[in-house]
Amino acid sequence: MGDTSLAANREKSRIGIWYSIWYDMRKEHSFWDNDGGPTKLPILYKPLRADGTYGRYYSADESMLAYHLKQIADAEIDFIIMDQTNDIDNGDGSLNENSLLTARMIKEWNDAGNRPIKYCSSIGAYAELTGDFSIIESEAKKLWERYVEAPWGTEEYHEYVDGKPLMIIFPMSPEQWEAYDGDKTYANKFTIRFAFGHAYEPGYWGWVMPKGTFVTEDVACIIPGWYKFNHPYEKVYRERGNTYKKNWETLLASDVIPRFVVINSFNEYAEHTAVYTADTSDFLEDYPIEGWMDEEGKQAPSMYWDMTKAYIQKYRKGDRK
Questions:
Q1: What is the CATH number of the domain that holds 209?
Q2: Residues with Cβ within 8 Å of residue 203, at least 6 apart in sequence
Q3: In 3-state terms, what secondary structure has residue 68?
Q4: pLDDT tens digit string along 111-137?
């Protein structure tokens, strides 16, 4: 039985999850066919779709968005972090179009009286790639004008922290941002948090946590694993769910109650951080990523999502393990 006083304090924690919005199988050579990594491999996961089948889907399919919102709400997750890190207006602009649609549908979802879900966005990868930190200011301006000033930009829909809308900058450290002396007019309108490619120190909201979950008064970020083909960075293997379990149990055992618990991620199948239900039976024999299987070696598409829901409940109830 959980600790009731601990449960009451943990109820104040906001639980968020990273959300990818770039999937499109309508055209040839889509992101499903090329995971964006050096090897240009297809994504072999087959996520559960709204109609109960498994396979590719289109991020701007409103039925899929509504379905995802219901799953997220049912899991008692409070907000999503829309991954707009790879340039808000990249390619044909579909990344931002899909994000705007997601924000609009969150407004419709909340207005309909459902368990509310909020959103925020993460930006900044091109600033790091080019060394031009002014890109963060220009993207912050776009977020402000397209989201915060829109009907879905109020506190009923957008995640606010300390009275301002939340924005995540990736990949950047607080020290790098503090040292940047360029224009921050629009960036300063947001409450800013940071994500880093491989975070070996506490306080980051993502991306990869090679040392496992750090718990601070601000945030605990929990990942099930991470892998990117042909990249030299340290991999985090799932180990049949044990990595995810260990990270959650670090949080459950901690005396520190973070303001935010962040899960990486709902559906980032390209970098293998997803936890939402997916069929992995198409994984190749020599594939370095393990399929989602139970202890008996049988396909278990929902194992990580089931764990997510169960651990959120344990956390909320004040369980220590």
A1: 3.20.20.80
A2: 174, 194, 214, 216, 218, 219
A3: helix
A4: 999 999 999 999 999 888 888 999 999
